[in-house]
From TrEMBL:
SUPFAM superfamilies: SGNH hydrolase. Signal peptide: none annotated. This is SGNH hydrolase. It comes from the Eukaryota. Residues 104-124 are annotated as: Disordered. Residues 104-117 have a biased composition (Pro residues). It comes from Massarina eburnea CBS 473.64. PANTHER family: ISOAMYL ACETATE-HYDROLYZING ESTERASE 1, ISOAMYL ACETATE-HYDROLYZING ESTERASE 1 HOMOLOG. One of its GO terms (molecular function) is hydrolase activity, acting on ester bonds. Pfam families: Lipase_GDSL.
Length: 220
């Protein structure tokens, strides 16, 4: 999907591909960069990369769609291609890396765990929930590393935490003691949408089907 939005001073393109990962989107990225670096291309002021939501999902009980090391390499490839491009149109381009969001697993009361996963933390859903956090952390780690070497041209946005914080506010937990220890605000057993019986789902509107964001999710 490609959407063009024009204001008085700039043109903005929103390009999205359903179900894509950092691996299978590479040909599209190459084509996009070619479009942005023609002899008549205007300067690209901002390039946003919002990938990882599909990469982090478990394809099998033991394997993500795109393993974390490959995901990291793919993102570095995208960043390096922009930052080292000889094209004048990309010489001053700023890059915004956005982390993948969490998912929303129904609570055990509304969606009982399968019998073959007596421990809910062994379920594919919960493992994907934790995987999304690992991939989000990697995006921020890369953004911080590239911020230094690029002279500030790369920055990261922690969308995962922003969505979780919004969910906690809705549940009246926004004022809890920060931290990830037992009983604290970011206790992994009590995070919104993690699917454990010690946690609550995100409120209606954040997700359409547990994986894809709804209106409230996009408004965070």
């Amino acid at each position: 999907m490609r959407i063009k939005w024009t204001c008085t001073d700039a043109k903005m393109f929103f390009i999205g591909y359903a179900g894509y990962t950092t691996t299978n989107i590479q040909p599209e990225f190459t084509r996009l960069l070619a479009d942005l670096t023609t002899p008549t291309s205007p300067p690209t002021l901002l390039f946003t990369i919002f990938l990882g939501a599909n990469d982090a999902c478990y394809r099998t009980p033991d394997t993500e769609n795109v393993p974390l090391p490959t995901f990291t390499t793919n993102l570095k490839t995208f960043l390096d291609a922009i930052l080292t491009s000889p094209s004048p149109s990309l010489k001053a381009t700023k890059i915004l890396l956005i982390t993948p969001p969490p998912i929303n697993i129904p609570s055990p009361e509304t969606s009982p765990q399968p019998a073959d996963f007596p421990n809910p933390k062994d379920s594919r859903g919960y493992r994907t929930y934790r995987s999304k956090k690992r991939y989000a952390d990697k995006v921020l780690e890369l953004a911080n590393a590239y911020t230094e070497v690029s002279g500030g041209r790369v920055v990261g946005l922690d969308f995962w935490s922003a969505v979780v914080d919004a969910g906690l506010e809705d549940q009246g937990r926004g004022g809890e003691v920060p931290g990830s220890g037992s009983g604290e605000k970011y206790d992994e057993d009590r995070l919104p949408g993690c699917g454990l019986d010690t946690a609550k789902e995100f409120a209606d509107g954040y997700f359409t089907d547990g994986l894809h964001l709804g209106v409230r999710g996009y408004r965070v």
